[in-house]
Amino acid sequence: MATPGLISKQQSTQENVENMPINVGDSVWVPGADQVWELGSVMAIGGLKVTVRNSHNKVAQVDRGLSLPQNPRVTDDMTALYFIHEPGVLHNLSERSKLDGQRPYTFMANVLIAVNPLRPLADPRISEIVNNSNCPPHPYAIAEMAYQQMVYNSTREMPTNQSVVISGESGAGKTESSKIVLKHLTTRGVFGKKATPAQVDEFAAARHDNSNSLDNRLIEQNPILEAFGNAKTLRNHNSSRFGKFMKLQFTSDGTFKLAGAFVETYLLEKSRLVYQVDGERNFHIFYQLLQGGSVQSKAEFKLTKPQDYHYLNQSNCYVAEDTNDKANYNAVVHGLSCVGMDNAKQHTIFSIVAGVLH
Questions:
Q1: CA-closest candidate to residue 222, choices 173, 180, 188
Q2: Which of 180, 188, 227, 352 could form a disulfide with 285 if both were Cys (CB 3.0 to 4.6 A apart)?
Q3: Closest residue by Cα to residue 190 from 164, 216, 151, 209
Q4: Is 13 annotated as a binding residue?
Q5: 25 in a labelled binding site
Q6: Residue 15 has pLDDT above 70, yes or no
Q7: In angstroms, rounded to a whole number, what is the distance separating the alpha carbons of residues 197 and 272?
Q8: How many degrees, rounded to 5, is the angle at CA 64 between CA 5 and CA 54?
Q9: Which domains does the chain have, with CATH numbers?
Q10: Contacts of 120 (CB under 8 A, 6+ apart)
């Protein structure tokens, strides 16, 4: 049986009544007062009107087009839902996030939907995803799918380029999702097409020992970009205030190993440098330098505390939730070293940051 089309809040028509058959006693979704949709039980059906008793034991007549049947089960790929409509999709995502271990990822065919858990979650082992055509929903699975399509849809003369687009509103988890995808592709690219799970596991365990490798430099650039381009907003304690386009290049000799990369940034929110609304912060790097810089460097740059600087004290916000500015400063220093900036260049960068504050 063909899956009915997406039905949101709409008036009844004969067509959608036939697409969404319901009977007395069925559980249906109806518009709610406290929530957008709530479950109810069908008590009677009359033409294009349905009498429904909701979870608060209240009885109401609802337009037939707004009485949408409940799906019989929760699934990790929502194309398998018997009824695909707004409350069905929302309920499926909500129920998956409540499962053991919290599963914020759900497929919709080859699209991955992520519900930000707002806390760190353990990623699966990359070796479990490599060359696996039946991966559970996860950004690793999307990255592996893109890699496999590049490899097996390609010839040596005409490789097939792939794109991974990560979109969503502020706080949806785009930054973290992009880092997870990058981690998989860079690990995958070390061994190329013939990677084995054992190789991937061994490499992942010793990854930080290869600080000058291309794959590690790509990973270590993230703290740098976040420090200079991310800030705390009212909705997100680590909001990217710029756009990022990243291109990974793989060899075309049939091995498909990681060969190079290109990162382009655009649309930086420059106005944040001089003004922030109440409850928001300037870019992370200023607070990181003030918290993590050595006693000697802060004395040299004549740095004190955030409250003393006009570019930082306008919003009366100096701390971001779940953010360790001192540890993140150390990550920035490590990242700068990994991408080839020696102590002299780092000193110049931080002196410019301090100069902006003054």
A1: 180
A2: 227
A3: 216
A4: no
A5: no
A6: no
A7: 45
A8: 110
A9: 26-69 (2.30.30.360), 119-268 (3.40.850.10), 271-357 (1.10.10.820)
A10: none
Q: Is 169 annotated as a binding residue?
A: yes
Answer whether residue 5 shows pLDDT above 60: no
Cα–Cα distance between 291 and 294 in angstroms, integer?
9
> Is 168 annotated for ligand binding?
yes
**Residue in the block written with tokens 């009977």:** 23
Q: What burial class does residue 243 get, using C-beta atoms within 10 Å of its C-beta: 0-12 exposed, 13-18 middle, 19+ buried?
A: exposed
Annotated binding-site residue? 206: no
CB of 254 within 8 A of CB of 319? Answer: no
- 171 annotated binding-site participant: yes
92 Cβ neighbours under 8 A, 6+ residues apart = 71, 74, 75, 78, 81, 106
Residue-wise pLDDT tens digits, 36-79: 899 999 999 987 889 999 888 889 888 888 899 999 999 999 99
Q: Which two tokens stand for residue 179?
A: 């880092």
> Rounded distance, CA 36 to CA 9, Å?
10
**Which amino acid, 131?**
N
Contacts of 257 (CB under 8 A, 6+ apart): 189, 190, 191, 192, 250, 251
Residue 65 among known ligand-binding residues: no
